[in-house]
Amino acid sequence: MHIILAFFIALYPHLKIEAYTDSTGPYFVVHAPHISTDFTLYVTDLSYSKDSVLNVSYPDFDLWDRKKTEDSVFVFRPTKRRTFRKNTLYAIRPSAFDLKDKNTLLGTYYFFRLNKKGKIGIAPYIFPVMQLLSKDTLGIFFEGNKKSYASITLFYKKESPKTITHNKKCRRHEFKIPYQKDLLYYRFSLYTKYDTFTSHLVPIKYRGKIETFAIFGDTRANWAMPSERGRTDGVNEEVINNILRAIYKDEPDFVEINGDLISGYTNSKEDALMQYYAFLKSLYPYASSIPFLFTPGNHDMTAPMDGDRRSHKDPTPPQSAEDLWKNLFMQPENGPIEQKGMPPYKENVYFLDAGNWGIFFLNSDYNYAKENRKRISGNITSEEMTWFLQKSRYFKHSIVIFHEPLYSNTPIKGHALDYDIVKRDSLLNAFLRSGASLILTSHEHLYARRKIADGKAHKWIYQVTLGTGGAPIYNVPKEKRTGIDAFSKETTYGLIHLKKNKVIGLVKNINGFVVDSFKIN
Questions:
Q1: CA distances from 75 to 16, 38, 66, 450 (A)
Q2: What is the CA radius of gyration of the chain?
Q3: CA 506/CA 516 separation, integer angstroms
């Protein structure tokens, strides 16, 4: 059922918004293809305090003069009740009620500001996303609404501020930041010869160690979501915000989102990008301060795809879903080398060195393909496993993170990597031989923990599934929870604490209450 629903959400039209100015002032154009609807716009005045990235006001409802200029194109002009100040950052988002399907659709935020001449000025399109490239290096990327130069100014406790510039005029800007112990804040700027946008101070919560990380997965949206924020351009923005708000209080060293970030299932690269942009916007403001990492899931590996829901394949590189993935994110580049003509592993398979612990991120949906709904490709590959077995030898302990569980937590046969029992058992034996202690997965929209042993029960490994990040939650009856030691259908996330020779896991709900805990010596 969840696969069918994912297909429909991918077909659900986006609400695209653009900002312009003329002699009367600013106005906004909303594109809503194939929708029979009524519209409004929500406005947020982003008035930042000096020290907190979290001080963002809620949208307020405003009146607009609306005119339909052509099929599915609407123009909104503010009434006298709605004024916009110069050099102030605003966020605009369209909301539509579909009269035919009786559903509300909420578009993602569009950020804009008026420059000193009253024209549309430079503004962020994607706010900074911080990623962990290694224990000692942070990556930060962001995008502007138009081509510009960019800089980041770093503020330290004792040293004088340092400014790093990106002197290429473009929309996307990437920076590698060497971590220093007294690094406290940063400020980013977008500028041209005639206009400049400078952000507030953004706190850096990373402290140069990898001891605790948070993890959850399946943030994709769904047609059946009761809230319009639950189906915002392929992403469940509402649940993501609730989880990240709780995680922020725990102060982890990084956050891992384990696949199915978006709904996917689209032939259009533009549509796939719009879904990913919605996902990145939904991480704001938390991803600007805490490092994030991502692993792909089956929905991400159909963005884009060739074919339809029943029969599809990964497009040929450089048009593959993996190519789009590596161009979007800024992740460690220490994975295996793909075979000639195959999709890249770059930034979708990688590892982190956490001292005694190696944390390995695999792609369980590489080169994903189906024929008549039967999976014919898309699994953890031999190249991934050879690379993992080689690299894991350098660590005393290891944790493995990938999207689809080895063993399904539902009664549906073949719902996870158990669709190929021989391959599944081969993967399990390899993980056991490597001495890996813990497998972290998502894919199934529930929380479940199980202990998996080899055939002789001489070795064992924990499999923990955390897939309640926004997709519809599964309800597995108690009598069908075979082999499961702990189960919950609450919205949860995991906190993994790495000690010298043990792992302590806490599973919390969005109210901060512990749902489950485990210890691996």
A1: 12, 13, 6, 54
A2: 23
A3: 6
pLDDT tens for residues 428-472?
Answer: 999 999 999 999 999 999 999 999 987 665 789 999 999 999 999
Look up residue 355 and give its two tokens.
């001292």
**Nearest CA among 184, 193, 188, 192 for reference residue 175:** 188
The mean predicted confidence, pLDDT, of the chain is 89
Tell me the C-alpha distance between 63 and 484, whole Å.
Answer: 53
Tell me the per-residue pLDDT of 236-277, one tens digit each, with 9 for 90 and over: 999 999 999 999 999 999 999 999 999 999 999 999 999 999
Give the ranges where 283-420 is alpha helix by DSSP (H): 321-328, 382-392
Which structure tokens are listed for 83? 């004024």
Amino acid at 456: K
Q: What is the pLDDT of residues 388-404, one digit of tens each?
A: 999 999 999 999 999 99
Range picked from 71-80, 97-106, 119-128 for highest mean pLDDT: 119-128
Among candidates 15, 14, 11, 5, which has minimal Cα distance to 222? 5
Concatenating the DSSP letter of every residue in 68-132 gives EEETTEEEEEE-TT----BT--EEEEEEEEETTTTEEEEPPPEEE-B-TTSSB---EEEEEEEEE
Cα separation of 298 and 288, whole Å? 26
CA distance 295 to 466: 13
Question: How far, in Å, CA of 363 to CA of 335, rounded?
Answer: 11
Residues 349 and 402: their CA atoms lie apart, in Å, by: 9
Instruction: Write down the pTM of the prediction.
Output: 0.93
* 10 CB-contact burial (10 Å; exposed 0-12 / middle 13-18 / buried 19+): buried
Which residues make beta-bridge pairs with 504?
497, 519
At residue 7, the pLDDT reads 29
Local structure of residue 318 (DSSP, 8 states): T
Give the pLDDT of residue 13.
54
In angstroms, the CA 233 to CA 222 distance is 10
Classify burial at 205, counting beta carbons within 10 Å of its beta carbon; exposed 0-12, middle 13-18, buried 19 or more: middle
pLDDT of residue 98: 65
DSSP state of 424: H
Backbone dihedral angles phi then psi of residue 283, each to the nearest 5 degrees:
-80, -15
Query: For 182-205, what is each residue's pLDDT tens digit?
Result: 999 999 999 999 999 999 999 999
400 and 431 in contact (C-beta within 8 Å)?
Answer: yes
Residue 294 near residue 328 (C-beta atoms within 8 A):
no
Residue 91 and residue 111 in contact, taking contact as beta carbons nearer than 8 Å:
yes
Phi and psi at 250, nearest 5°, equal -80, -15
Angle value at C-alpha 148, between 144 and 152, nearest 5 degrees: 75
